[in-house]
Amino acid sequence: MNKEQKTQLIEELTQTIKNNRAFYILNPGPMNAEETVTFRRRLYEKGLRLRVVKNSLLLKALENAGIPETHNFEPALKEMSGIVLCTNDPKAPAQVLESFRKETKKDYPTLKAAYVEDTLFVGEQHLEALTRLKSKSDLLAELVGRLQAPIQQVVSALQGAGHTLAGILKTLSERNN
To answer: pTM value?
Structure first.
């Protein structure tokens, strides 16, 4: 790969990183061809794609994309690396990775790092937490629901009291007649 091709690849990676909500850096490990095809197919079914890149080019792309504190990625950028970019569901790659490893009963591919909603996760120990991660919109919807619940209870109580009061007034008016 010549310098021009590397520059073009860095620019392409920079744009894709900027345009995605999250990305995962994986070590594909010693997967054979069949396992690789199966893993890539599972990612593709979720609208994801695994791209193997040189660590130095990936680090340059992260810097160019404006990802803060790129030096924190350096421990993860050893050995072979593949990047999975997410536009919609930031936990989808973690779920695919976990289910693939359970099915194959192998401990690879491994999670090297993940960058989700402006938060960096470095290391395999974060995989389980990433599979349960809620998106920002899910968290906002949950918060709005929790804020609305007490208000709805007050409104229901007032409506119930209003119906009770109306019933009492109706009964009293019927007695007077």
So the answer is: 0.72
